[in-house]
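Exam review. A common question shows you a sequence with its structure tokens and asks you to describe the fold in words. Practice with the pair below. Do the first one on your own.
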Amino acid sequence: MSAISASTTAQKSLTAFDKLGMILALIILAGLFLQPFSQFAANRIVEATPKMIWSALPGWQGVCLMATIIAAIVVMVLRSPVNLRLGVSVAMMAVLALMVGRSGYFLMPDDNPYARVSAGGGFWIMLFGFSIAMADAIVRKQLAPMKRMAFLAIGMAAIGLLLWSGAWDQLSILKEYANRSDAFWREGRTHLLLTFGSVGAATVTGIPIGILCYRVPKVRATILNILNVLQTIPSIAMFGLLIAPLAWIGRNIPGAAELGIAGIGFAPAIVALYAYSLLPVVSNTVAGLDSVPPDARDAARGMGMTVRQLLLQIELPLAFPVILTGIRIVLVQNIGLAVIAGLIGGGGYGTFVFQGIAQTATDLVLLGAMPVVGMAFAAAIILDALVEISQTHGKKGASA
């Protein structure tokens, strides 16, 4: 009996710990003790000197931050209430963001305007760990779609407030932004145009193609196989393949050059993104129409609906959540793929990414990469919420 009771006690002690929390604790501890919190360089070119928390901040501030991080780790490791886990993870992300900005002011010398202070690997690793903890807590709370979008809006407002407050003004990423502020917003508009232009064109053409594939099974396999082949071509190769034909069109077709069609630049970038967007839209349209219950079709035909009425009033509304899921996939995909357009002069935030790689300037790379990550994250949350809302409305309409 003593062995059985000892085994039961051991099992209970194990269930007192959160498995994901233990993994995240190891990640955060690695960021805390194995990676620098900040990095200092005398100028933009020389190699940076790593600074751990205890040397990146004034003594007492570093000690308080370390103690706060360890206390947050304890909360995550234990099976604590979801609201507490969410509050702690959000608070720690805010504290880390404020303190890395504080390290910029602490490390920046008064007599060297060329010095650079940047966030180190430890900061990014810990921020990643607490962001995963936040996402896990949100999933566990099973927030309604509108609440998730409200949470996103609050987060975006908090980031805007952080940047507006000047807390990060001494970090090198904002110094890179200060030198390129006009270009940053110009390339941002181009990135959005590449992304939403390609997704919009794919939606307008892909849904009718999907309807055709659904209505005419004989062409379904052929069309989907062609789109599958396009999807397997690497993005850089796709851009390269488009250079020669678009250059010929720009030279030989009147008015094409005036429209911006050329071998490099915006035109091949948006055409390539459009080609990558078609398969998810078409395949999800077919899948959505296939998922429409036969009873719904029979009832519509029994009411005397024409084929057109059946499609517009019954089939497409019921298939809409699946079609929207395909659009979500395409949008998030193209936000990231548009970065590659910077290689061929297509513009977008990829311009900063590749400039930073060429100059070995990490913060210039981050200046281009971080907005892309933020846009993809926001797009995923918003469209996931819209998919869930459309599914709820679809179920209500079907039951009615």
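Now try the second one, then compare your answer with the model answer below.
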Amino acid sequence: METPPVPYRPDPAGGCPHAANARLLARGAVTPVVLPGGVEGMAVLGHEALREFLQHPGVAKDARHFTQLREGRIPTGWPLLTFATVRGMTTADGADHRRLRALVSRAFTPRRVEELRPRIAELTDTLLDDLDRAAADGDGVADLRRHFALPLPLGVIGELLGVDAEFRDRLHHLTNQVVATDIRPAEAVAANRELVGVLAAVAAARAEHPGDDLTSALIAARDEDGDRLGQEELIGTLVLMIIAGHETTLNLITNAVRALCGHRDQLELVRKGDASWADVVEETLRWDAPVSYFPFRYPVRDLTVDGTVIPAGTPVLAGYSAAGRDPAAHGPDADRFDVTRPARPDAARHLSLGHGAHYCLGAPLARLEATVALQRLFDRFPALDLTVAEDQLARQASFVGNSVRALPVRPRPRPGG
């Protein structure tokens, strides 16, 4: 009788996922995991297995299918609870999912996203000035994540949602706690409660003074037809939009800058025109996905994926960072950052923005923001480089998000550089 694999315990404190991913992939595309608090689950890591799983009709997002939660075995302060219980697109199935997605999809059509390009460029240039000033005040060194990679997507999604600037820093702090996997139960409960309170205040402000923003449009839908969007779904949708609307792009920009600074030959290829900034974005999404393990999906019946049975009701993580470097899909050099990597057919493209019905609605916006940001950043500061070694960068305190906490850079060329 074959010995079952030892469950993988993702580190709640985060850390670079790639070495562990390689070890796990070597033994199979699916692995049992033990989540914080001893909660048993599974992770799908292999590219083809994950692609199949993400679009499988027997896989649900609604937490009523989460057996341990339904049976009362998940504590209130569990750090991953919000991912399961928030009311919105990412926890809805079928007609409910289509209804909620339709309410926000008009803000993310290719035409609407392209209309944002001038504003994104304007905001990018302002933030590059801020980065330059921060470096001048810091002996030539500034935190690119804090001064550039964060405020750009946070500002864009804030404007789209009609979130006043006074709320944005607090919302980032709170959403950062929501995606943390090492947070204590009392802190998790408090952060979720405050996040809901802040977004309720945002919604109340937009209800009193509606504008040309997505929150106002959602409130109008709620007020016109409560069956179309309830108050809990309104707040849940705002929670998801704030988190997905800036955390993913923040990590994408940060990871792309790290990759280019660590692979100057690849940056030179872009400068010579042998690759595009869009190529940089796609290769970064594959090579260092902004989300490592995304919670949760649940089989509605026992499901066999790549020869492994996942019992019904099991919470399953989507292993995006592992799938991005799966040699079975991306070749024996899958762990190499290569902006000239040939375009792959749809079946072999990276899955870092999801797949199937729950494919990331904001993917075109994330790609646009990252492309504009990287091009203008390296045009302005062609000699930009990290000031510490890659392995000395402190990682995010999460196995959900995949990036670093700070990115100290020198945006001005050194003397003679």
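Model answer, second protein: The beta strands are 30-35, 39-44, 59-60, 142-143, 293-299, 303-305, 308-310, 316-319, 385-386, 408-410. The chain has one domain: 18-410. Full marks require stating both points clearly.
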